[in-house]
Amino acid sequence: MTTAVHQTGFGSAALDVERIKCDFPILDQKIHGKKLVYLDNAATSQKPRAVIDAIVRYYEHDNANIHRGVHTLSVRATEAHDEARETVRRFIQAADAGEIIFVRGATEAVNLVAQTYGRANVGEGDEVLITAMEHHSNIVPWQMLCEEKGARLVVAPINDTGELDLDAFEKLLSSRTRIVAVAHVSNALGTVNPVRKIVQLAHAHDVPVLVDGAQAVPHLPVDVQALGCDFYAFSGHKVYGPTGIGVLYGKEEILAEMPPYQGGGDMISSVTFEKTTYNVVPYKFEAGTPDIAGAIGLGAALDYISRLGMDRIAAHEHDLLVYATEQVGAIPGVRLIGTASERAGVLSFVMEGVHPHDLGTILDRDGIAIRTGHHCAQPVMERFGIPATARASFAVYNTRQDVDALIEGIRKAHEVFA
Amino acid sequence: MTDDLGDLYQEVILEHSKAPRNFKRLESANRHADGYNPLCGDRCSVFIDYEGEAIKEIGFQGSGCAISRASASMMTQMMKGKTREEALKLFEQFHSLVTGKEDVAVNAVDLGKLKVFAGVSKFPARVKCATLAWHTLQSALEGKQEAVSTE
Questions:
Q1: Which residues of chain A neighbour B125 with C-beta distances below 8 Å?
Q2: At what angle do helices B11-18 and B66-79 cross, to 10 degrees?
Q3: Best of B14, B40, B42, B67 to disrupt the A interface by mutation (most A CBs within 10 Å)?
Q4: Residue A146 annotated among the catalytic residues of the structure
Q5: Does residue B148 fall inside a structural domain?
Q6: Minimal CB count within 10 Å: which of A9, A13, A294, A374?
Q7: A281 in any annotated domain
Q8: What residue numbers bound the domain in which B64 lies?
Q9: pLDDT digits (tens, 9 = 90+) for A331-353
């Protein structure tokens, strides 16, 4: 079988993946006596030594609170935190570092927009437009908003391959639509959405667009200005950074108009009991002492993959996904879930006679980590009429040998249940 | 298969998962409950015809992994004729068995064939698969209206 997977510009030289593997200390271990094969990267990626070291170095040498002290450590911590923000800006090609808001993760980023922009701009009878392939984190915050405001959550359908029905999407844009929220890459299906096109359609109706980039940022070069989106959300831990840190990008003119999210320190200019004046963006949205070490760790992660080159990472993962799609798809009884023409990072499948959960257990005993379940995308499972899938998801350190181990494990499971 | 896997997927478990017994919606049921494992999406419905002081007839339906299907199937086989108290006591023993509690050996005589599920204790992530049907049974016996969850 053939498959066309999302393509980006190919780098000049291939990656030395065996060497890259050595950068990730956790991969050098055995699980149940077998070499660890980590294929659950869409859930969370492993961390390179550079990230672990940056966090340790920060706590051993620079730890202090930011924006507060005149002492040397506070200055160092503030500079390191600012530098991390600038690294993020550069990585997603934002125009200004003030457009980068640090949050806990993509989930908090979506909630922030729903609770600030959403509450200020969505009213009774209005509509929020999402797609049928969203992760729960890009459904529930909008549902909560719609419930509070008496607004309607409208869902654009997907076809049998897992692609967004763009015509239907366009027809669902109405004079009542106040915001569009859409995944860049589906976590359950791997579908890469035509975000530029979606943004053009929405903007033609004067509707802003939030893009959930949690599954895109680790796999594709992202340029928020080229995409033209108004908001872009992603999590640090899925892109080789630590947990507990994530990013909300927002266009400056929109952020400036938005009410603050949480109240507290750092988000204010001045406070009296009568009146508080809020700080400028991005600080207006960053109440309290932030995850300083997390931001620094994320900066180190983005530096690390920038050195490898996002184009080369995308090309390597494309090769793996094509190989895995062919090999796994050829196993008798396997049905691939999500066969969009453009995919990234994820191979989702079900097997006749073997429940994903049983497959996951059998693979684990061979040291192979995959995700099994509904992937926090129950509506997607419902769309395909299945309760769960098995999902192998790739990262820069995965090899064809990892895919071969997966296939061997699948065959073994097939034998157990034959 | 490694030894642990062999302990988990014993022949009798595989056999029950492929051809579950009492896999039916019971028309005569006067007690019924739905169970759900939100982590993996497994679903289980238990139907009981409770007459006098005992389970006269029992059936189950649902979708799930081999462990949850086999556990439900073998549970229904053991339940016919049991009183509510006997059924709940057996659940307690079964729960101890699959979570690897030491005291099970003492009472294991009641568990009979269900002892094949002892291998589950080496797979903590699978305990909820093995107990979903039992939680649902308990809910049905207690006449709860809301769907029971393993969480």
A1: 361
A2: 90
A3: B40
A4: no
A5: no
A6: A13
A7: yes
A8: 3-142
A9: 999 999 999 999 999 999 999 99
